[in-house]
Design a protein that fits this description.
Keywords: NAD, Oxidoreductase. The protein is α+β, with helices and mostly antiparallel strands. The protein is built from 16 helices and ten strands. β1 and β2 form a beta hairpin.
Length: about 450
């Protein structure tokens, strides 16, 4: 089917957008209109608020919002809000929290909170000449030019921490960076950082034009390519960890404490050395992290990008978590680079985000970093615990059972039958279909 492009789609009303989509792409089938409209909120003001979070909105896309209780984090008992659609994520996190609650819980340490941004520029000039200009003139001017932008942030205890000139000419001809580090306190700080960087670009251009040590040819060669924050924040890192005596590492699967500790450490080591395993290993960690990131109105895409870049920082993709079993002590930890905020963005607008932050005790950005690292560590512990004992499918598929039954149109009575049927069995898609067809044939 050939479709026609449209001019001015963004100017159409919501109903106009839906009418055009249904008529142009869905053969005018009104059932699709009904699907979109049934997810609208009955509260018109609340729906308008959601519509204005993004562009060209025509409906809401729901995700389950669940709670993982019993997290003991740095001596405080916390219930984690988790927005996630994948079966067994909330259950695994909850089970891990319960496992560690009587063993001291989770301990966290904020290692650093620096965020980064760059002015990327091309300048055909000798690097020593540029470095002298930067050290003795430009750096001071950059701080002065951004004083108005940074005033409020400085009043809250943050601001620009440092600015460095980075010579990248070995990688690309005449390529340099102004690399700036920031402390944005309780905000994620993207807009603040980008505003500072854009001023850096303007100031660089102005100061180069005035500098007598540069020839006109050198001045004309300056190109400000872009000014943008980096979502890779290797110096904005939190550590979360658990530890206990191996003698206390009792698992209900039937294997000994010593065997559990040995196999668990082996599983982590495999993820540290094998990228194919590390990818799935870290994906599981991010199941836990992203669910809380989304529930608290933060940017899960930035979180994902940063975590995976950090996992490959030495040139090979590796596990984000680590494990030791020394002197009779089991220790399991994660170092997670993560940049989040508790003010600005959706945090002051989305009602469920407000609820999530209230539920967590209105944490600071650093406290939320700790909570997120704990959620990822708990998720990884739960997954590895299953993998080295009963296997991942037993628990995961049991959680997935209702999804399969709903797809097949099972009644509530039939669902209860299957819960009992699989009480002592591993759920498989084939077995569910076979038993369902047997029941319906009776």
């Amino acid at each position: 089917m050939n479709h026609q492009p449209i001019e001015g789609f963004s100017k159409l009303t919501k109903q106009g957008k839906m009418d055009w989509l249904v008529n142009e792409y869905l053969d005018g089938n009104q059932e699709y209109q009904n699907i979109l409209q049934q997810y609208w909120n009955d509260n018109a003001e609340l729906q308008k608020l959601h519509d204005e979070f993004s562009e060209n909105t025509i409906s809401n896309f729901y995700m389950p919002y669940g709670i993982a209780p019993n997290f003991l984090i740095d001596g405080k008992l916390v219930a984690l809000p988790m927005a996630v659609e994948e079966s067994s994520v909330v259950a695994a996190a909850s089970k891990a929290a319960k496992f560690w609650i009587d063993k001291g819980g989770f301990k966290t340490t904020i290692i650093n909170t620096e965020k980064l941004g760059h002015t990327h520029f091309i300048f055909n000039v000798e690097s020593h000449k540029l470095l002298h200009f930067f050290n003795f003139k430009l750096k001071k001017k950059l701080f002065e030019a951004t004083e108005a932008i940074t005033a409020n942030m400085r009043n809250r205890g943050g601001g620009i921490l440092d600015i460095k000139l980075v010579d990248k000419t070995a990688d690309m001809a005449h390529y340099y960076q102004l690399k700036a580090s920031f402390d944005t306190v309780d905000s994620m700080g993207a807009n603040f950082i980008n505003s500072c960087l854009e001023q850096f670009g303007k100031t660089l251009k102005e100061e180069v034009a005035k500098e007598e040590d540069f020839t006109q040819e050198e001045k004309d060669s300056l190109q400000i390519v872009m000014n943008i924050l980096s979502n890779f924040t290797p110096d904005c890192v939190v550590r979360a960890e658990v530890s206990c005596k191996i003698d206390d590492l009792k698992d209900d699967s039937g294997i000994s404490n010593e065997e559990f500790a040995r196999k668990f450490k082996q599983a982590v080591t495999i993820a540290e050395i094998e990228p194919f395993r590390a990818t799935t290993h870290n994906k599981g960690i991010m199941n836990g992290v992203d669910a809380v990131v989304i529930a608290t109105g933060n940017d899960f895409r930035a979180t994902e990008a940063c975590a995976h870049a950090y996992a490959a920082r030495d040139g090979q993709y590796r596990s984000l978590t680590h494990c030791t079993t020394e002197n009779g002590i089991f220790r399991f930890w994660i170092d997670l680079p993560i940049s989040v905020g508790v003010v600005g963005g959706l945090t002051n607008l989305h009602p469920l985000v407000k609820f999530s932050l209230a539920l967590l005790g209105k944490p600071s950005a650093q406290e939320l970093m700790s909570i997120l690292a704990v959620s990822g560590l708990a998720q990884n512990f739960g997954a590895l615990r299953s993998l080295v004992t009963t296997g991942i499918q037993k628990g995961h598929m049991k959680m997935h059972l209702l999804n399969i039954l709903n797809q097949m149109g099972a009644t509530e009575e039939e669902k209860q039958h299957f819960v009992v049927y699989f009480k002592d069995k591993t759920v498989t898609h084939h077995e569910v279909i076979s038993e369902f067809n047997r029941m319906r044939a009776q």
